[in-house]
């Protein structure tokens, strides 16, 4: 893909509201005017290009020939042609692949662009076939097919009776696919549709300029006479078309102006999260995004500021979204399916009240969650807005439930605390921070107070083609950490055999610690809180699954928290559903919803929590929404006749229908992908069993990961599901969160420009201390990932 | 408005993808089949009704006559007819008002429904004119015009070449207006569009069943022969149409089944916020919402459970959204403008990365906020997800800035605290809770700790036609509170004259308190935090603006916090922009963005804060998004060469493009409404000056509010902008947040059913202790509010 427009090169696509509304005539007039016109301040002559990617009814019909006939100055191209005058999806039984057709289209425009002299101006027009949502050969709708280019669109309106509707529905469809529509052209006739459209669209945001043109002459039977009258029509209407070209020129430069102002405007008005503004260098200007790709614009000033070559033209850079836009991406940017879910929910409800109310998207989402990530353990869903609030809710659920139990047992407690894992991260609201060990994030917050005990975890890394489990020295009372290795990914997750030395080490360390905390230090605890398997923001720390399993089991068996058979305040809570020891809270904000390949990290641990939080991938990467799931036992603890015994927590937009609808579509898609075996090849490559059996795999290529694991500058790799985290070996400079090594690698990944070669792609990553990570979306293709792997490998090898 | 479908009564609308696609023929076939058919398990005969609300080309064209001719069993109706065979917006120069046309349409169907016998089944079809987005007489698009009914839609597809596009764009438009489309009908012809559509829509959610019908015969010149062949066509195709009617019947009952299951499903799977589940009675099932109205469905079981009459039919209840869906509503539910903004942003970006990035919706929103609510004081915008996170961000900004200043001055501080107002509420995350005085919300939270001093505020209420300012006894060292009255709303906000006794009372009380806190109690403070003007969740407490103004001024003048000229850590911070005393944080989550009539409550106080938080109305009521604005002085405090000096706070979906785009549309609309003088009548009624001058008013009718203020059961009223809060006089039972009086009034407001009379409406309110409040949206019409005022008055008078 490539975004082509620059200051001196404009490209447009023509879409029509219907067939037979004058698309070719108006396209011809436009490109003819562009070729005849000197546009821009310097009055340079413009060279014009017309491409018809798909032509049916050929050679009787040939729009490119029509253009060549009536606009001989224009260079034309026709790419795919079929004799049958029908829709392209019917015209051939052997459709070329979409990627091929799109690449051919891009190449035709690019070739024209490259043919231009240094001082030439170029103007290209792509004429689509049929209407906005007419299919291309493969059956894909043109609206979606051309979306990766996101060319500014000239919409040809329908001037006939009824044409207001087809014009506006086409406009609305293009709009929801994310196109900009600088011009709407239509003929003047007795329906006077243009008058209505002008009035109606005057209220719209980003409204197109409406251009009304004289109707073309009625077709004559005599071909020569017909041609002559058409020549005459184009001559007579030339000024109308020149106006359109001039207006498009204005819109084009205004768009580039806005893009070139954006970085500076952001620098002076925005306070970015987690950003030291004093050290910000290049600001990435994102024009749009589609699938895995973010289309960014590098303006000349920015390029100069970063010391790049002094080319005065802005350039486009298409970047693989390697940080999954802060770990949110699931189904690709600009997903039409998600957009349509969102739009329907917005149209049907907007946002509606939730407490004591029910609406279909929320109830359906609750049921789907209970049937997937909550299967076999959860029965209630609480909605909030982001991972941090979902954890605050989880803490409120757990801590009150525990306190009530202590009270029932007659045990007075002060403020109860959590038991967690050192290096964990649960969000930036202060309650969630207080449930983390002291770290770089919370050190600056005056109200932060560590309310817990944090176990130092044994960790796993893939290094030198082996999975290495490192057990901290303190657990074995030795000077050096203990190392255990295995060469199969899934076996890291297999429950250890009874004679595995880890079990005794972990269990006795946990037991001794719990006894010390409760008996010697007299501390009271109300919850266990952890990110199962992978601690994300703490630095992509892969915790030995066996340790987390032991921690949960030991807490559940520990007698010092009150016995597991104690009834809760409400006698009707069945004991079998009651939590044992302490409520176990899993923070699956990062790991949940198929991030690591399986529906939840709990599923990989083979442990069910009492409470768990989900966000990020929940909505496929579109919009913020979070949920906290729990059991009846925890829920019932808040029941009474008194309002103030309820969980008095809520956010205004709780369970907003857009978020719920989009989450339903996302979960449905993830489940379908799983049952369709989309990851079967990856499973096989990583030695995991096919769908239906336990198994763990990575979406990243096994051979590439293996190679990285053997590099000297690499401490080890974490390859789990869509996550590939590379811990760099810091040889000098600050370590941990303050490390700059990852930042340097990320900068090199970003620098690579795409237009040099079709096989390459720049990669947008985000530094995380000494960790370089790439997170794919759930729908990234192998072809796409191979490009990223290639550039990543070459960067790490120092070849880029 | 009225939703009409019940188990025994079905109603549909027919929309077409274009003109001339067979809409009337297919409508005739459908309604003819319905009349001939016994549908449902009990095989009762069905009576059918056809209505054509708008007919052009009459009487030459008359679709109702066509129906009557070929389906004589069907009752037909034609409402508005015009001779010119053109689009309705051209056919008449004197268009009837939309409300009249819609009401006539509803009445025609309702009259038919009422004519049915107890055991009859009814089936009604509404045929629209032209295509989906064709205009009605006023120029409003039919898609929007008919939306309040949200009838299930039969979409007539376009079978011609190119018809795939017009059919799918029409489908997408209907979908984004929130319509359900159970059936898509089209003719079989050589384009075979139906084959493609079947394949394509198989992937869609809520996909329509596609019905293919034989094409009708070509029109004959001989009228009699033409009629005969049409009769023959309808006879021959009867079974096709019966199939469609049967499938629609299934979809109809499945829809009602789902609605009737929804309450129970919610009861067993959802954990509602702020809800004591043990005392939940009726669950409100929300089918959809539009404008101010939520369309709810009361199923027979629910009605029986609440002791209502034992009617076995479910009923629809249309309710005014009197709690503005938890204070979010600004531009009405299901707003097409907001939907289109959201859909465009989703199609263009999805969500994209924000730190060190720039995208147009976010930058535009930042600039708009700085130009409106942030005008003259703010220069930086930080994005988060909800009011609570926006406050946590504000606190982190303020407290670190203050601590740094103390450190620069060589003053060691422990944990710094906030100065606030008793009764304030700032959200449910624990950091925000800790910035509130102890209350019913935070009492149950084990990690809650009050980090502040809370002033008891003087308050304002409108009682007995006067605005009464009550000054707490502790401020005047007397036994009784002091009362000051005025009879003009705006004058409550006027800066008091120098000899106003309040000034000395407030100032000396504040000064003495600050001195005691800092000198005697040795406490350190880092921020002032308050909801300016109106403390919402704390019970709609209207604080005397003069007091809040004095509090800010005294804090800014107080020397005990470090001098106002002290430089911050970064010497380049201009002193003139530096905060004085302590950073002043305004929580405008509830009061901001025109809620109280003006852009911000700060604007009403005539005080600029150093930091302020906005959410709720920011997105017009569609989706969750929050912002925290601040000054360069506060921002600069986080600048250094060290990453960990930055504000290390962020959420994954920070500045999500959908939220930003929708907020831009909302702010643009609010500003336009203001400059267009939409509230001028309300201003005048409340004695405020027109736009451009200071002034305060209520959207609620002055006479009605006056009447309520004089009721014995009313303690006083707060009429500010869109908010009308009535503090009830609790004669017995618990008071404050635990009070049930408001709940009783709200229940009565909800019970009133709408179908009894067109002039009435049920009102969905939400109890808040002893306060009954109504919050209008910013676009509620006077007519709509008059209905609500009527039922509210009569309820308070005990007449309902």
Describe the protein in words.
2 copies of one chain form a homodimer. A 7-stranded parallel sheet of chain A has the order 3-2-4-1-5-6-7, with helices on both faces. Helix content of chain A is 36%, strand content 18%. Chain A is an alpha/beta fold and 800 residues long. Chain A is elongated, with a radius of gyration of 31 Å. The longest helix of chain A has 32 residues, at 238-269. Strand 8 of chain A pairs parallel with strand 11 (357-358) of chain B, so a sheet runs across the interface.
Category from helices, strands and their pairing of chain A: alpha/beta
- This entry's quaternary arrangement is homodimer
> What kind of sheet is the major sheet of chain A?
7 strands, parallel
The portion of residues forming beta strands of chain A comes to 15-25%
Rounded radius of gyration of chain A (Å): 31 Å
Helix fraction bin of chain A: 25-40%
| Mean pLDDT value of chain A | 92
Number of strands of chain A: 27
Greatest contact between two chains: A-B, 181 and 182 residues
N- to C-terminal distance of chain A: 22 Å
Put simply, the count of helices of chain A is 26
Using the alpha-carbon principal axes, give the shape of chain A: elongated
Order of strands in the sheet with most strands of chain A:
3-2-4-1-5-6-7
Q: Spans of chain A of 5+ residues with little confidence (pLDDT < 50)? A: 564-576, 754-759
């Amino acid at each position: 893909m490539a975004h082509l427009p620059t200051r001196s090169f404009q490209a447009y696509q023509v879409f029509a509201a219907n067939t037979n509304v004058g698309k070719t005539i108006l396209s011809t007039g436009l490109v003819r005017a562009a070729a005849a016109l000197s546009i821009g301040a310097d009055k340079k002559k413009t060279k014009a290009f017309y491409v018809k990617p798909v032509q049916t009814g050929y050679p009787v019909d040939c729009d490119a020939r029509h253009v060549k006939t009536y606009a001989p100055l224009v260079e034309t191209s026709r790419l795919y042609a079929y004799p049958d005058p029908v829709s392209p999806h019917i015209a051939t039984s052997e459709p070329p692949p979409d990627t091929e057709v799109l690449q051919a289209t891009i190449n035709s425009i690019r070739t024209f662009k490259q043919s231009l002299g240094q001082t030439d101006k170029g103007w290209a027009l792509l004429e689509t076939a049929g209407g906005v949502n007419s299919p291309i050969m493969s059956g894909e709708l043109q609206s979606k097919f051309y979306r990766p280019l996101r060319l500014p669109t000239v919409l040809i309106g329908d001037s006939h009776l009824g044409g207001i509707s087809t014009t506006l529905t086409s406009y609305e469809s293009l709009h929801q696919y994310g196109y900009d529509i600088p011009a709407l052209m239509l003929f003047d006739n007795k329906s006077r549709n243009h008058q209505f459209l002008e009035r109606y669209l005057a209220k719209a945001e980003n409204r197109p300029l409406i251009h009304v043109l004289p109707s073309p002459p009625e077709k004559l039977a005599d071909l020569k006479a017909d041609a002559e009258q058409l020549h005459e029509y184009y001559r007579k209407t030339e000024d109308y078309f020149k106006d359109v070209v001039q207006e498009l020129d204005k819109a084009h430069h205004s768009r580039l102006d806005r893009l070139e102002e954006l970085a500076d405007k952001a620098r002076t008005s925005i306070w970015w999260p987690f950003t030291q503004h004093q050290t910000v260098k290049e600001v990435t200007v994102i024009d749009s995004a589609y699938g895995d790709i973010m289309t960014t614009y590098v303006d000349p000033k920015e390029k100069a500021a970063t010391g790049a070559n002094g080319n005065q033209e802005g350039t486009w850079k298409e970047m693989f979204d390697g940080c999954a836009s802060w770990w949110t991406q699931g189904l690709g940017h600009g997903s039409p399916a998600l957009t349509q879910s969102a739009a329907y929910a917005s149209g049907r409800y907007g946002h509606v009240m939730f407490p004591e109310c029910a609406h279909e998207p929320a109830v359906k989402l609750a049921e789907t969650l209970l049937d997937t990530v909550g299967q076999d353990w959860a029965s209630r869903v609480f909605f909030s807005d982001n991972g941090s609030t979902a954890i605050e809710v989880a803490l409120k659920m757990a801590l009150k439930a525990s306190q009530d139990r202590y009270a029932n047992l007659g045990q007075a407690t002060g403020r109860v605390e959590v038991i967690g894992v050192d290096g964990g991260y649960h969000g930036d609201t202060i309650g969630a921070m207080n449930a983390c060990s002291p770290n770089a994030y919370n050190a600056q917050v005056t109200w932060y107070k560590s309310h817990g005990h944090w176990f130092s975890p044994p960790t796993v890394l893939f290094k030198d083609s082996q999975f290495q489990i490192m057990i901290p020295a303190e657990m074995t009372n030795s000077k050096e950490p203990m190392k255990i290795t295995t060469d199969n990914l899934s076996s890291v997750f297999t429950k250890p055999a009874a004679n595995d030395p880890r079990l005794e080490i972990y269990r006795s360390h946990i037991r001794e610690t719990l006894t010390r905390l409760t008996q010697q230090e007299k501390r009271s605890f109300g919850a266990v809180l952890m990110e199962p398997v992978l601690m994300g923001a703490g630095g992509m720390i892969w915790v030995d699954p066996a340790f987390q399993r032991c921690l949960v089991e030991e807490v559940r068996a520990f007698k010092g928290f009150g016995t597991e058979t104690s009834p809760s305040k409400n006698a009707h809570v069945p004991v079998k559903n009651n939590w044992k020891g302490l409520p176990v809270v899993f923070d699956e904000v990062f790991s949940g919803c198929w991030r690591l390949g399986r529906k939840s990290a709990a599923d990989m641990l083979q442990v069910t929590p009492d409470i768990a939080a989900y966000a990020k991938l929940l909505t496929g990467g579109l919009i913020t929404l979070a949920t906290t799931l729990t059991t009846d036992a925890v829920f019932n603890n808040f029941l009474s006749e008194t309002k103030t015994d309820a969980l008095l927590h809520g956010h205004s937009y709780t369970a907003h229908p857009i978020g719920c609808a989009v989450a339903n579509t996302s979960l449905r898609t993830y489940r379908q992908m799983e049952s369709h075996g989309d990851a079967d090849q990856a499973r096989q490559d990583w030695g995991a069993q096919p769908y239906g059996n336990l198994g763990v795999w990575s979406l990243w290529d096994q051979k590439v990961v293996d190679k990285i694991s053997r590099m000297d500058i690499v401490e080890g790799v974490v390859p789990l599901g869509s996550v590939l985290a590379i811990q760099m070996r810091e040889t000098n400079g600050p370590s941990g969160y303050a490390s700059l090594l990852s930042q340097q690698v990320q900068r090199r990944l970003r620098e690579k420009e795409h237009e040099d070669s079709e096989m390459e792609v720049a990669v947008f990553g985000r530094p995380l201390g000494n960790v370089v990570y790439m997170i794919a979306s759930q729908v990234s293709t192998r072809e796409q990932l191979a490009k990223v792997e290639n550039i990543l490998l070459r960067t790490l090898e120092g070849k880029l």
